[in-house]
What we know:
This protein is α/β, with parallel strands linked by helices. The chain has a domain at about 5-200 and about 245-280 and about 325-340: Rossmann fold, CATH 3.40.50. About 40% of the residues lie in helices and about 15% in strands. It contains 12 helices and 15 strands. The protein has a 7-stranded parallel sheet with strand order 3-2-1-4-5-6-13, sandwiched between helices. Helix 2 (about 20-30) runs parallel beside helix 3. It is globular. Keywords: NAD. This is Nucleoside-diphosphate-sugar epimerase. InterPro entries: Epimerase_deHydtase, NAD(P)-bd_dom_sf.
Amino acid sequence: MNQMENNTKTVIITGAAGFIGSNLVLELLKTASPVQIVGIDNLNDYYDVRIKKWRLEAIAACAAEYQDSSWTFVKGSIANRALVDDLFDTHHPDIVVNLAAQAGVRYSITNPDVYIESNLIGFYNILEACRHSYDGGAKGVEHLVYASSSSVYGANKKVPYSTEDKVDNPISLYAATKKSNELMAHAYSKLYNIPSTGLRFFTVYGPAGRPDMAYFGFTNKLLAGETIEIFNYGNCKRDFTFVDDIVEGVKRVMQSPPAKETGEDGLPIPPYAVYNIGNNQPVNLLDFVDILQQELIRAEVLPADYDFEGHKKLVAMQPGDVPITYADTSALERDFGFKPSTSLREGLRAFAQWYKEFYKI
């Protein structure tokens, strides 16, 4: 990153102890120095908090190394309006990256409340804080970048998924909240001229990832001698995207807010954009499991003679799941000259190695 245009920027990153958030903080510390980063995360126990703490320790070590930048961590929820307002009033961010969200399709079926709290109320608080950052003629937030999801495409039959496609048929509450984020951001961009960019992430994976994701859950179960269930009888395809590719995409987008322009009605043309970030190469789940097991053996997480066939079960589709995710990334390539490129084997190899070290196998 070109030192954020060669002057010190202040960046607020929500969900900073999360999978994508923590990797983005590390990347900015290493490549955007000098930069002031303020992270907020509620460190909830949706999954093993030890992983979140491990990520924060990695950030602290990195921040100690790059001392012309600063790193501040605040433990708290973006659903707390007073806390969010105080964060903005204290730090006056130039760029805001909202990655805090309750993730996961299946969890939204059993625990809907947390999705409304984090993904809707929390995001509303961020939008309001961005709006008021311009009060009194202040320079305010230059760019709001926020996480959307490939889930917004629902059961769309046309592939690859393009941001031009209609996305009015979500099949999970999680997807509905992410589509709502895009609509809310559009309204605030129109009303208050807030430059905002939504990023639809496609099945992000990698070291220190989320344990609720298939590759991580499969590894846990295989190690415990349990049976892994492969949904839709193995006929699912996923556009697996390595976390480093996601972070590189986010970093490039952060530096290029949509332009502010005035329309014929004298009101702002919304400085608003949405992009897909995916690998553009969907992989069949059975092929994915095959590569994962090879890399788990290579990293000595599992023994060479492990009986995988005896621990695999093909089952029907889960409610809220979709048969395929497949990103059309042509707009990202056109506007930012970037396309994810990490191969699945390379990415799963990095995960298997991290898993072995983290769990001391």
